[in-house]
Amino acid sequence: MPHLQGSEKDLLARLKAGERSAFDEVMRRFHQPLLRLAASITGDRESGEDVVQDAFFRFWQGIGQFNGRASLSTYLYRITLNRAVDRIRGRRRRDGAMNRFRHQVDAVVASPAEKMEREDLLHAALGMLPVKFKVPLLLLEVEQMAYREIADVLGLTLNTVRSRVFRAREKMVATLRALEGS
Predict the structure, then answer these.
(1) Which of 35, 95, 126, 159 has its Cα between 20 and 30 A from that of 10?
(2) Predicted structure pTM score
(3) Pick the residue with more confidence: 9 or 161?
(4) Is 171 inside any structural domain?
C-alpha cells in the first residue's frame, strides 16, 4: 500500500489538528472524482452527492484513527465506495450509470436512435452486474484508475482486480448479446 508523502503528511497533521482549511482543501481536491465514482455506482448524481457528503462526514469524524499507511485518496475512495454500495443495498437496486461509456457507444453505432438504444442496453447490462464486478470496472473505465490503485482502494490483490474486470467485461458482452437478441 502506498504511504503518505510530503504534502499529504502535512495535510494529515493539519487535519488531525482540526484545521478547517485543511478539510476544505481535501474537499476541493477530491469532491469531483468522488462524485463521479458515487454517481456511477448509485446511478444518479443526486444520490452520488448524498454519498459524497456522507463520505466526507465520516472521513472528518474518523480522521483521528487514520494512520497514513494508505494515501488520502485511497482512504477517501474506500469510504465513498463503501457508502455507495451501502446505498445500493439499501435501495435493493443494482443499476449503475453508463453515461461515461457514451464514447464507446458512439464509436459503434450510427444513428441517434441506435445510439440511444445501445446506450440503454449498456446501462441495463451494467445494472445487472454484481457489485463486486461493477465497481472495479467503473474505477478502471470511469475513474481511469490503475489496476494497482483499484486494488488498494478495494483491499484486493492485483490479480483479483484483473480477474474481476475481465469477468465484468465478459458478463457485459454476454448480457448485451442476450438483450440484443430479445
Answers:
(1) 35
(2) 0.61
(3) 161
(4) yes
Mean predicted confidence (pLDDT) in 49-65: 90
Q: Give the CA angle between residues 90, 34, 139 to the nearest 5°.
A: 85
Q: What is the CATH number of the domain that holds 29?
A: 1.10.1740.10
What is the number of alpha carbons within 13 Å of residue 148 lying toward its C-beta? 4
Give the pLDDT confidence of 99-129 residue by residue, as tens digits: 444 444 444 444 555 655 667 777 778 888 8
141 inside domain:
yes
Give me 179's grid cell: 438483450
Could you give the 3-state DSSP secondary structure of residue 159? helix
Local structure of 67: helix, strand or coil: coil
Of 145, 140, 49, 44, the residue nearest 96 (C-alpha): 44
